[in-house]
């Protein structure tokens, strides 16, 4: 007998637990009992669309490796937090620029440095890293590669477009915003009438973008082995 989408209860229904544990196993994302309602709320539209409101049927859809390859990216898109902003967690990035990068090139002169933003969402973190390194003049002196990945295909697609609404700029110094972004006026079904800013082509090219699930060794093994700095 199938179980339809219902408001979450505490403890959650056994079928919800099965689905939650499967998602945790495949994605690393965990929703505890107190957040079961958030978990099922984020997935409810996918369950309704793909399994006629049956949680059990959706569980078996995801469990079946032969038929789930196209569905898991949609799960990532639904569950992951993809909003961020520029110039966030700057204490960490200043340590990178002022301490880690100099130490690396002192210990390994002439050797390139690979930096990995391992859950980059819409791209704010790796672009902030690129801006900070650019401002410090490191790209002119040394070979530095920045890699950015996210399990959500939708997030990576946004990052590759390099278009950002006003909310992403709430912390960045205005001079850097004007230096590295061009203000546009959106008029589309996707963005409405919001003002957007396009990241400069030069800065955007500093980052190599790719989709990657941190729970999948095949997706991330090369980056994990070759990037001594991981955010």
Structural write-up:
- There is one protein chain.
- Helix 1 (14-27) packs parallel to helix 3 and helix 2 (36-51) packs antiparallel against helix 5.
- The protein contains twelve helices and seven strands.
- The chain has 231 residues and is α/β, with parallel strands linked by helices.
- The longest helix has 18 residues, at 90-107.
- It is globular, with a radius of gyration of 20 Å.
- The mean pLDDT is 88.
- Strands 6-2-1-7 form a four-stranded parallel sheet, sandwiched between helices. A three-stranded antiparallel sheet has the order 3-5-4.
Summary tags:
single chain; 231 residues; alpha/beta; four-stranded parallel sheet; three-stranded antiparallel sheet; 12 helices; globular
Unreliable segments of 5+ consecutive residues: none
Helical stretch count?
12
**Estimated share of beta-strand residues:** 5-15%
Q: What would you report as the Rg, rounded to the nearest angstrom?
A: 20 Å
* Overall geometry: globular
End-to-end Cα distance, whole Å, is 45 Å
Number of strands: 7
Portion of residues in helices?
40-55%
Largest sheet: 4 strands, parallel
**Structural class by SSE content:** alpha/beta
As laid out across the biggest beta sheet, the strand order is 6-2-1-7
| Overall average pLDDT | 88
List the helices and strands in order.
Answer: HHHHHHEHHEHEHEEHEHE
């Amino acid at each position: 007998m199938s179980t339809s989408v219902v408001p979450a209860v505490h403890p959650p229904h056994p079928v919800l637990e099965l689905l939650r544990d499967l998602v945790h196993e495949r994605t690393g994302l965990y929703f505890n009992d107190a957040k079961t309602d958030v978990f099922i709320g984020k997935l409810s539209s996918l369950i309704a669309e793909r399994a006629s409101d049956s949680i059990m049927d959706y569980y078996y859809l995801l469990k079946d490796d032969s038929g789930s390859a196209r569905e898991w990216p949609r799960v990532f898109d639904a569950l992951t937090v993809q909003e961020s902003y520029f110039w966030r967690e700057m204490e960490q990035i200043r340590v990178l620029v002022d301490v880690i990068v100099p130490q690396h090139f002192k210990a390994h002169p002439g050797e390139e440095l690979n930096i990995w933003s391992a859950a980059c969402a819409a791209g704010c973190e790796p672009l902030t890293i690129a801006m900070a390194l650019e401002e410090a003049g490191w790209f002119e002196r040394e070979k530095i590669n920045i890699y950015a990945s996210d399990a959500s295909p939708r997030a990576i697609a946004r990052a590759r477009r390099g278009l950002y609404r006003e909310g992403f700029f709430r912390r960045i110094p205005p001079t850097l915003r004007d230096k590295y972004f061009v203000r546009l006026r959106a008029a589309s079904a996707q963005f409405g009438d919001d003002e957007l800013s396009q990241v400069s082509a030069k800065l955007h090219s500093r980052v190599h973008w790719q989709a990657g699930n941190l729970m999948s060794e095949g997706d991330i093994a090369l980056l994990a082995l070759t990037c001594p700095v991981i955010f």
